[in-house]
Structure formats: structure tokens, C-alpha cells
Amino acid sequence: MKHILKIYRIFLILIVLLLGVWLISKNLVMAGELIVEKDFCSPLRLISDFYPENRVGLIEREGDTECFQKIFIEPAYFKLKVPRTFGRVKVEIIYQNPDHPILQVALIQKRVNPLDWNFQLKPLENPMSQEWQSGIVEFFAGPNYMNNHALEFMISAPGLTKARHEIKIKKIKIWLYRSPVNWRDIFPDVKNYLINKIKKGNV
Amino acid sequence: MFDRILKDLLIASGICFFMLCIIEDFQPGFVSFWFDIRIVLYIALSSGFLVLMNEFAFKLKK
Questions:
Q1: Distance (Å, rounded) from C-alpha B35 to C-alpha B31?
Q2: Domain A32-199: which topology?
Q3: Residue ranges of the domains in chain B?
Q4: Cβ B33–A46 below 8 Å, yes or no?
Q5: Hey, is the C-beta of B34 within 8 angstroms of any chain A C-beta?
Q6: Do B30 and A81 make contact, defined as CB atoms within 8 angstroms?
Q7: pLDDT tens, residue by residue, A11-31
Q8: Whole-angstrom Cα distance, residue A78 to residue A149?
């Protein structure tokens, strides 16, 4: 009986340890690539909804499977929580923009002072479309773009407010790239990750 | 024996849940992206409930 209880306890400890190791390895992004997707129907906490609230609409449902959010006043923002610092970011948005001729996506730089306002702005190739259309932009990221463990993006459409147009967005997909973790450097990398996690710095 | 198994499960799942919450900084983040923390919480709650019921039954028996 005692042996069974001992084995059972070892089994429980091993499960807890394995779960911890598995989660840390996932957070380290060993392969160097992370893909995050948001479709507005299911709540994904890593990618926020668009904000501020007074510039965007509530999440609307179209049929059973399609949900979207409207932008009335530009710029609107969204945030992506990231476990580490990434070097390159690719953003795909699926949008419907029947009237407005300019649509741009920006990656905002870290704000040291409240008045800091630096970003990389990339226009979408085909901004206008009656139907749902996909637009892809790519940015160089890095520690300068980490705002409190998150990357902050901006959707800009100059003149949108004045023209009283609106843009619907139904899906955001983000690819994040960094150099993969080498097995040789795994221990310094884990140590660095844990130290920075405790310090709440950029990992 | 059954009582001990349940108590160990309660302790392990309780510690595990607390550890995961600390890793998450007590707000939804990356752990909940990879893994549903509620599984651990449900294990802790159900084993805690069974431990309580067991204690209660034992006292009644006495």
C-alpha cells in the first residue's frame, strides 16, 4: 500500500513538473515562429478588440460563423500580448472597406514618455473592397516595440471621420518570427527568460 | 488509502493552480493560450469536495 502511495505521489509531482516545463518551452517559442489568430466570434485574450471604445463599434455577428467590428473614427488600435521579443511581425487583416481610399496599418514603438509617438506605417495594397478582402503588411519589431509585454498596432485611414465612412474588420492573423532556440543555448535562454519574467522586462 | 489519494491530489492540483496563476501574473495571458487552467481548478475543486464528503461520512460513521 505504501509503495502505491509513493508511486502515486511521484506521479503527481512529475505531472506538475512536466506541465511547468511544457508551458515554459511553449513560452520560449522554441521553433522561432508563433501564429496568433482572432476572428472576433470567440474571445481570444492575446489579441485585444479595437479601442478606444468611442471610435469603434461593438462586435457584430453576421450569420453563425462571422463576427466583425466596425471602425468609425481613426486611428483605432489593437494590442497583441507576446511571450517574448520578436524580430519580425506579419499582420493579415480581413476587412471590408467599400468607400474609403486609404487604409494603413502601423506598429507603434515603445512609449517612454506619454507624448512619444513613433511608429512604422504600412499601407494596404488594395484598400477599397465591397467584399471581404485580405491585406498583409510586414514590420520589423524588436525590443523597441514592446509595450508592457505587448505589441500595439494602429489602423489608420486618414479622413475616415470627415467622410463618415466605416471599415469592418472580421479577422486578424499575426505571424511572429524570432531566431529559434538552439539546444546548446537552451539553459542560458531559459535563465534569461525567467529572470526577465520576474523583472517584468522584455523577454 | 482513498482519503490519502484524494488529499494528495487536492494538494498537488491546488499548488499547480496557484503556480499557473503566478506565471500568468493573475490575469489571462500566455498560459491560458496554451492550456486551459480551469482543468486544474476543476480537479482541485472536485477532489476538495470529495475530501470534505469523505470526512463528513467518516464523522457520521463515528
A1: 6
A2: Jelly Rolls (2.60.120)
A3: 2-61
A4: yes
A5: yes
A6: yes
A7: 999 998 998 888 888 888 888
A8: 14
